[in-house]
């Protein structure tokens, strides 16, 4: 076993020497390292700039809210506030869904708004193909480079006639294939180096959690190992390097482009989402069926009125210890918030059903499992976006209800005649609007990333078996 390993290492060394003597592989690898370094640097700079800008805007909005003059509390309900989604440190490595979902949410009473200002809506169509991030270059471009560098690793020996000589001298086909895989694996490791250094820098200087960063490094290492195995296996199965190149290019197109696209389209048909217009119409109809929050005399408030009078043991709303209009505002906001939460849960359930459909296609394309793993660990997947939206909605509800409570407690029914004229001191809404979003715990991320990691490991075992089978056919002299 030790002798076979030593021979495999010698073969790998000779293969690397052959690659260095050529012009194409060193030049391509140098350009790759430059591209990967630029991708990591620009992604980090863009993430840092965006995070600082969002933090600055959030601070400005907090100050603007607290600087509002003395006024009616319900005027502040309609004045509203903004919540900006903070960026996690690893979002620089893989922005995931962030470019498509938006990051700014306007919080106001009686409404639940969508997040706005997604980068895709403000950029050219080039962004829809992919951003120059470490995740994109490793998922899409790295396999292509491995194909061009390693497609002739074994087929070249057959074309040159040296394969028969090596096997006749007693060299095991398995050892030969292992040496070629080791050589291409060292190239893959070098290709992974810039991303690994970038992840280490994010942990050391950017405050990124260490375990998710390590998980990303290991996940992409396994993904590149998959391509090393399939490239060497196909090269061993094909008679000519040209044939191996064509087969591998077809596999790259299918695995990286076609299958993910087909999975997305099928998911959209199997779990369709209503359009924005349809959703708005449905919610508007349901809101119209609720009692008017601005009209305490609306007959649809009759049941609430009777419960309130009975709760405080009085017969007239004028005798209540609290301002009835404020209580009506609180009850109306509770009802509308329940409606918004229900529709939000339904929408996210459909989106998660679409994601489940896409995940099933990981049996055809390991790229889908890699993307899933990468976005989960980077904190940029659908669940991370849902955490932000639900956290912002909870904050919106608490903020609006705090203002409605001010109307109920700080104003009387007799003086609460006009939201335009009756006012209370501005000190009452100091600190109400502060929004703080907490990222998902590391343990939860790792748990959610495990199915994707398991899918990659299954692919690794399967392609390892393919390589062994290809080596066996090579040793038997089969075409």
Automatic annotation (TrEMBL):
MF terms in GO: ABC-type transporter activity
InterPro entries, per database record: DUF3526
Residues passing through the membrane, by range: 135-154, 181-205, 217-237, 244-263, 449-471
Pfam families cross-referenced by the UniProt entry: DUF3526
One GO CC term on file: plasma membrane
Alphabetic keyword roster: Membrane, Transmembrane, Transmembrane helix
PANTHER family reported in the protein's UniProt record: ABC TRANSPORTER PERMEASE (PTHR43471), ABC TRANSPORTER PERMEASE PROTEIN NOSY-RELATED (PTHR43471:SF1)
Protein's name in the database: DUF3526 domain-containing protein
Species the sequence originates in: Rubrivivax rivuli
Taxonomic lineage: Bacteria, Pseudomonadati, Pseudomonadota, Betaproteobacteria, Burkholderiales
